[in-house]
Specification:
Helix 1 packs antiparallel against helix 2 and helix 2 packs antiparallel against helix 6. Helices cover 34% and strands 30% of the residues. The longest helix is centred in the middle third of the chain and has 13 residues. Strands 4-3-2-1-5 form a five-stranded antiparallel sheet, covered by helices on one side. The protein is built from six helices and five strands; from the N terminus they run E-E-E-E-H-H-H-H-H-H-E. It is an alpha+beta fold.
């Protein structure tokens, strides 16, 4: 696993962004969003901790918080776009056609109390649940992280002052 921490600072706020590129190997066959077997892939995981006046104030998937405080920097904006798109790419709930349909109908799902249930119902209504024998959300599917996205993430981490280090993963 390669890991980097980016520290963004202003007079009142500090944000630590943890970026991990994890090498994943499956002991049982995982499937991609195209329903193809995959034994090995790279998974992106990003999280953050925000501190105001020295006290932790927010953590997790805080891209809006990061952009609120440091969005004037293009590298931060670019990282947040990639973060939102590729975070946990080894844990997709749907096939490519299911995910595409949900992105086309995103406005219809916005604000749903039970987003998963609403997505599954919408896909059923569209004739995509199940799709090719796969019921939406019944397993985690892998969406490969494109090499260009990985390279851009590495470049942005470097530009923002982070440095990747190799960390041995526990089996």
């Amino acid at each position: 696993m390669r890991r980097a921490v980016i520290e963004l600072r202003s007079a009142l706020v500090r944000i630590d962004i943890d970026v991990e590129l994890r090498s994943r190997q499956s002991v049982h066959p995982h499937l991609t969003i195209d329903r193809e077997p995959v034994a090995e892939y790279t998974e992106l995981a990003i999280s953050m901790l925000g501190f105001e006046r020295g006290h932790e104030s927010v953590g997790g998937q805080g891209t809006d918080y990061v952009l609120e405080h440091f969005g004037e920097r293009q590298a931060v904006r670019d990282l947040c776009v990639l973060w939102r798109r590729w975070h946990l790419n080894g844990m997709r709930p749907g096939t490519r056609p299911q995910l595409l349909a949900l992105s086309v109908h995103a406005q219809e799902l916005k604000g749903a109390e039970d987003r998963f249930g609403a997505a599954a119902a919408l896909l059923t209504e569209l004739g995509l649940n199940p799709h090719d024998g796969y019921k939406y959300g019944s397993a985690w599917l892998v969406e490969f992280l494109p090499e260009l996205a990985e390279a851009r993430i590495i470049a942005l981490v470097t530009e923002l002052g982070g440095k990747f280090v190799e960390i041995a993963e526990v089996a």
